[in-house]
Amino acid sequence: MAPRTFWKGYLKLSLVTCPVAMTPATSDNEKVRFHTLNRATKNRLVSHYVDAVTGKALDEDDEVKGYERGENDYVMLEDEELDAVALESTRTIDIETFVARDSVDWIWFDKPHYLTPSDPVGEEAFSVIRDAMKASETVGISRLVMYRRERAVLLEPRDKGIVLWTLRYGEEVRQQDQYFSGLEKIEVEPALTALAERYIDEHSKTWDPSMVDDPVQERLLEIIAAKKKGRKKPAKEKAEEPQAPRSNVINIMEALRKSVAAEAKPKK
């Protein structure tokens, strides 16, 4: 069963418009979540905002957003002022710009969403927009109010639908040159690269979602299941202690040879 749609609106390309629905492509609903309880009563605890100076709890009507411009000096902004800077339309994805798909680096991508036509009448217009981007190997750039903020979004044709990515803001992205430019270029021996490539080839597999399973989540579920049945929690497996290197000098060639040779031996 498909997840419930969390956004409905319109996809617009010049004079071509179609109704669409959007759903987050990822979910954390399956994660183990905890409530904070009073150990004595087992009642849930609630949190309140408290004045940092007076210690008094505040009503929601007394809360206001503030931008710090100096020590204990703030510019206060009301909700109406914050809403005024948002886009006028929060329900239309108007694509006015297209860029080559491979020109947008991975670091700009934030959250993925599935975009599909929400009405059979609009399926043809949706397909025209999707297939035109696919044929031209481009993605669309637009802006939309999502998660209570105006976001730049990227629309990428994928299979029979479109994946809409929210993009990170410019001030969120750190340029790699700040970190990589100081690294020295080292000439690596071809024999070393060949051995490393051989090891990689022997360990290459077809991608499978099970590769990113959460072992902590599984362990938590085991503990919860045991407590439900009144059993003791499972014993924690002792992690192997990493062995200290026998020398500060590492023979990379020898290490790679041993790695490849170990894989070549038949497993018992």
Overview of this protein structure:
By secondary structure, the chain is an alpha+beta fold. Among the domains are: 7-26 and 85-172, Beta Barrel (Ku70, Chain: A, Domain 2), CATH 2.40.290; 182-200 and 252-263, no CATH class. It is 24% helix and 26% strand. It has six helices and ten strands; from the N terminus they run ββββαβββαβββαααα. The strands form two sheets. The chain has an eight-stranded mixed β-sheet with strand order 5-1-2-7-10-9-8-6. A two-stranded antiparallel ribbon has the order 3-4. Helix 4 (190-202) runs parallel beside helix 6. The longest helix has 14 residues, at 123-136. It starts with 6 loop residues before the first strand and ends with a helix.
